[in-house]
Design brief:
Helix content is 43%, strand content 13%. By secondary structure, it is of the alpha/beta class. Helix 6 packs antiparallel against helix 14 (369-387). It is globular, with a radius of gyration of 21 Å.
Length: 392
Amino acid sequence: MRRWLSIGLALIAAVLFASAVRFFVVTPERIDRGQNKVQRVAVDITPAAQALQATLDLADMHADSLLWKRNLIARSDRGHIDLPRLIEGRYALQVFSSVTKSPKGQNYDANAGDTDTITNLAIIDLQPPRTWFSLLQRSLWHAEKLHSFADKSAGRLRVITTAADIDRLLADRKNGMTVVGGMLSIEGLHDLEGNIDNLDVLYAAGFRMAGLAHFFDNDIAGSMHGVAKGGLTPLGRQVVQRMEAMGMIVDLAHASHAAVADVLAMASRPVVSSHGGVQATCKVNRNLTDDEVRGVARTGGVVGIGFWQGAVCSLDPNNVARAIAHVRDLVGIDHVGLGSDFDGSTTTGFDASGVAVVTQALMSSGFSEDDIRKVMGGNVLRVLRAGIAPKG
């Protein structure tokens, strides 16, 4: 009897173990696949657009790929980004954001900051326990992931932290090297955990850009999707000043109108809106007004246009071109670029390997080759290069 009981318990333990393994392997992939979708948009790419695309150095200011349990070195059949797809898309530089907190029932209108879905994701992904209940540690884990991917990439991915890194990256690409730069950003400075000195910790980990708020108000700034939607807090003003001094670019994406106005009034260096759209072509509250676009341009910064419904009100790349054309007509071609929000729990009409459809849309809209080069990467690379240099 004891023998059969032991066998039964062993079988139960084996089944439970197999179920646990399956859960922790399959569930993260299922979540990633369900959150980051591609609904292919059919676009005929002309030989002229293909030829131009093959010569571009693309730069994109926002992707959330580090949030997911995905090997970014290997080609994947889920999500929007991995190194092979970036190479195929002619990317020179991709900014990878660290998302550390996301409220339950997240929406564009109003979210409180007292709930979080990323805690569950951190546990399901079997991330280090230090990340389960610390927003700062989540960002540091994301940085470790990018550095690890770079170390394992055989030189095809390198982490960018200085202007000299950008210069070297572009020179190596010009000389025929297959290499993509990755820069670290933060989506909401709640990961400071109320301590401004944690900016130094994040900077040391490689972060060179940061959005002030994400989908909820925090102790730095109000969010466009928060409850109060206030401006910069006293701590937030100190943070902006410290960021400008150290060479960490201020990102206005998701910030409330009041916070955007406060930053633009005090900015002494270029600021960006890394990903989104413009209300003139897509009247969604997270998108910038014309006055805000003008304010970004006055700092010498750049507005990144996204590829998803909330940014351009369509998955059609022609709507991306339409938003870009509006910014160009409003403030000039030097102040607009790409901010895809790939892998940001978004559905897009193409992934990183298919970004030539944007080149085609710009060409079909009458943009010159020189202007397409600026939009697809030149403007972003210029602003990043200037912005990550410590203040002299």
